[in-house]
Amino acid sequence: MAAAGLLPVVGLLLLVLPGALGKRSQVKTLTDSTWRDLLQGEWMIEFYAPWCPACQSLQPEWEKFAEWGEDLEVNIAKVDVTEEPGLSGRFIITALPTIYHCKDGEFRRYQGPRTKNDFINFISDKEWKSIEPVSSWFGPSSLMMSSMSALFQLSMWIRHCHSYITEDIGIPVWGSYAIFALATLFSGLVLGLIMVFLADCLCPSKRHRPQQYPYSKKLTSESSRFLKKLDEEQEADEEDLSDDEAENKELVDRDSSTNAVRQRPVNPAATTDKS
């Protein structure tokens, strides 16, 4: 009889528990590889951390709001900044929780009350139109924010390396800092050499002339003076020669005229007439 009385209770539990246990969250989880889905359609995204008390108190309201996502035609998503540091840098998350609204690639930061009804009114009444969108320079798909995301990922990788060195290997903390300092110096040296190499390839410098010492300058000036003096003497000699040639020419002309007078022939008929 007792077993027969338990059958309805067991049947009821079998009907209720699968629905309760099988109820899945309507909130989508975004990662660094799927964040570009935000660029299409309308989204509400929450950035949170599991250890954040404010984020923990927001989770029930966010889950209730996600149940209205299909009716409002909006996607509800969340990002764990402890697991996705790249997205934390890409969206410049400085406080938790942070909520963004995205519509066809335009991002706006939500700063209103954090209740289910307020979220619903924000979407249904299109209150997001009164908020100025984030500038394209600071948009998550811009080059600047992509670089910021890479820096955040690098910082998280360094943190993991530090934990591995100190906890797994057992090296003291100061030893880990020394390793990172040497690695920083080495990487800076390599980057500097690469930049110098690229600068020489793109903008080659002119070859410098050999350095001239003071005595060489003195010799150069004296030699120039000597050459100048030789040129002046040569010009003077040429002038003297030209004067001598002119005098000799005059003398030759005089002698030639005198000889011409002496050699003039006498007419015989003229002498006969005189006689």
UniProtKB/TrEMBL annotation:
Composition-biased stretches (Acidic residues): 232-247
Keyword Electron transport in annotation: yes
GO cellular component, one term: endoplasmic reticulum membrane
Localization, UniProt: Endoplasmic reticulum membrane; Mitochondrion membrane; Secreted
Topology with respect to the bilayer: Single-pass type I membrane protein
Primary site of residence: endoplasmic reticulum
Protein keywords: Disulfide bond, Electron transport, Endoplasmic reticulum, Isomerase, Lipoprotein, Membrane, Mitochondrion, Palmitate, Phosphoprotein, Redox-active center, Secreted, Signal, Transmembrane, Transmembrane helix, Transport
UniProt GO molecular function: enzyme inhibitor activity; protein disulfide isomerase activity; protein-disulfide reductase activity
Chain residue ranges for the region called Disordered: 228-275
One example of a Gene Ontology biological process annotation: regulation of calcium ion transport
PANTHER family linked: DUMPY: SHORTER THAN WILD-TYPE (PTHR46107), THIOREDOXIN-RELATED TRANSMEMBRANE PROTEIN 1 (PTHR46107:SF2)
Protein's UniProt name: Thioredoxin-related transmembrane protein 1
